[in-house]
Amino acid sequence: MPDPILQLTDVKTHFPIHEGFLVKRQTGTVKAVDGVNLTLARGEVLGLVGESGCGKSTLARTILQLVPTTGGTIVLEGKNLTAGSSAEILDARRNLQMVFQDPYASLNPRMTVYAMLAEPLLVHKVCPSAEVPARVAELMTLVGLAPRFMQKYPHEFSGGQRQRIAIARALALQPRVIIADEPVSALDVSIQAQILNLLASLVKKMGLSLIFIAHDLSVVKHISDRIAVMYLGKIVELGSAVEVIERPRHPYTRALISAIPTPNPDVERARQRIVLAGDPPSPVNPPSGCTFHPRCAYAQEKCKTSVPPLVKIDDGREVACVRIGEI
Amino acid sequence: MVSLSPKNLPAADLSADQLEQGHSLWQDAWHRLRKNKVAVIGACLLIVLGLSCALAPFFAQSYYENNLELTYAPPSADHWFGTDQLGRDLLARVLYGGRISIMVGLVASFVALVIGVSYGAIAGFFGGKTDMVMMRIVDILYALPFTIFVILLMVFLKDPMQAFDTWLGQHGMKQAQGVGKIILLFATIGAVEWLTMARIVRAQIMSVKRMEFIEAARSLGYGRSRIIFRHMVPNILGPVIVYTTLTIPSVMLLEAFLSFLGLGVDDPMSSWGKLIKDGSEKMEEYWWLLVFPGTLFSLTLFSLNFLGDGLRDALDVRSSKD
How far, in Å, CA of A320 to CA of A290, rounded? Predict the structure, then answer.
């Protein structure tokens, strides 16, 4: 990996389940993120896909340390973000920012755009306070909003404009890495492309690295350099975007890819879909061995017993499947 | 605290008159409130009543001077509301009584507001065991019969407060005598009225805590107090304001009830509750003693309730445009 900026090693986020009246006992654990290894290169866009509930958003919040990690390390530019909360580490965490899914919930309804964008600059004394208005105007222009709207409130903007404000806020502290948690899934289809293009151009212009989370492969394909596929808290396949989309190796990825509709109706009609049986299993009580085996068409006895590690198979491609050589 | 409105605009590309001004949710709520006629009438009545009570010393007659030649005089040009058993001007007594009643209403609600908001915010923000212990205490206090609780407090704290009054008297503050009793009223009523406020604030804080804009604030590295006071509290103020305006009348009723039981203020001071109590004893012969304080008290309560309802409609997020 040339010049890694963010490195996740065996990251785990488990949530205890407490039950009982008055006296609470821990009756189980939700393994939302269960041993994720991931490296993000400088200037790279990594798409992270998976079904609802597979732990994508929890992984994002874990990387930002909004939820505590149960195990593993998150290293950003040589600093381990999980090691305590010293001033140095709190400083380092600011190099990671997030764009949230719902632009209707991620902006404080009582603050003007100016207040939202100026606050991080003033709190962290990024620039002299006399320059703050100019800097805010600059940020707004950067995300395609006219600075004359700076005195307006979030409810006076459309969904797409709000997401632009959220992006501007994430950029205010000039972070190195942005994590976008389904930034377009709450938006109108006609607006989605605009926001995607904006993110792509910002990554280029500012030399950002981006982790782009989505449950929709066609959206991810558009923007990513590499794609990671997540299933039940683990990464099952990782590779360059073109490779993963054109030649998926893991049975789960194949099923996901086969679900992308094509614009041409003739092709669409002939398209073979792999329909997975059943629902995703509960992360409270995951199946033994490979967690995908109950739904996998290629499952064998050994899949029920051994947990497949994420193995490098060829150039930059990693797949977690014991039968990868055979299928 | 740093200012979060633009001062030195980048002159080159943006001048102040080009800036489009937005409407905050507070401004929207204000517009909705102004359209609500009943609430506006209530607010106006409250202002008139409040001002006349507050300014009573400048125009009203004495509320404590006896005039034994003019006892139980019916309303006349000299005494608009008539006089009582000691010949005291009832108008003056009603206005001075209003000062006490309104003050008890405001101060006790403020006591309830401060205790309730801080208690609820702490319980809601920290959650877990802290929250459980704090809210069980509230549950226990809730379970106590509330009037008995107030009466007990009033009775037990009576002696220290009388000592305080005597002390005031000895130190040349004769005018301030009776203040001890009023402070006692504020404290006891406030101490039982904060419970609901604490519950409301806790629930609100808990729902706001999980909002994405709070997570965004955390990832921007803001401190805990900035997150609570700049980001959470402004977003829960709506219900708090509404509940406070609805607490004031219930506090005033409680004060009236305590005065009715003889636990309120002492003669020669008056409060609306006390005047109503005195009037009710003689209402068959001297109707004005009951009708005037009763009418003013009811008008105030109506106005407060209408204003509170109007505020609730105006601040309700669900009825506001998104």
Answer: 9
Query: What are B18's two structure tokens?
Result: 């080009």
pLDDT at res. A210? 94
Looking at CATH, the fold of the domain delimited by B47-63+93-319 is given as: MetI-like fold (1.10.3720)
Question: What pLDDT does B268 receive?
Answer: 72
Return all residues near B200 (Cβ < 8 A) that are at least 6 apart.
B116, B120, B239, B240, B243
- pLDDT by residue (tens digit) across A205-222? 998 999 999 877 878 888
Taking a C-beta distance cutoff of 8 angstroms, is the pair A133, A117 a contact?
no
Q: Please tell me the total number of residues recorded for chain A in this structure.
A: 327
Report the C-alpha gap between B32 and B313 in whole angstroms: 8
pLDDT tops 60 at residue B130: yes
What does the domain layout of chain B look like in residue ranges?
Answer: 47-63+93-319
User: pTM for this one?
Assistant: 0.80
Nearest chain B CA: its distance from A197 CA (Å): 23
The residues on B that touch A, with CB distances below 8 Å, are 2, 4-10, 13-14, 18-26, 211-213, 215-222, 226, 230-231, 234-235, 321-322
Quick one: B70 exposed, middle or buried, by C-beta within 10 A (0-12, 13-18, 19+)? middle
Residues lower than pLDDT 70 in chain A: 1-2
**A34 has which bridge partners?**
A12
Mutate to test the interface with A, among B3, B9, B24 (most CBs of A within 10 A): B24
* Residue in chain A nearest B10 by alpha carbon: A134
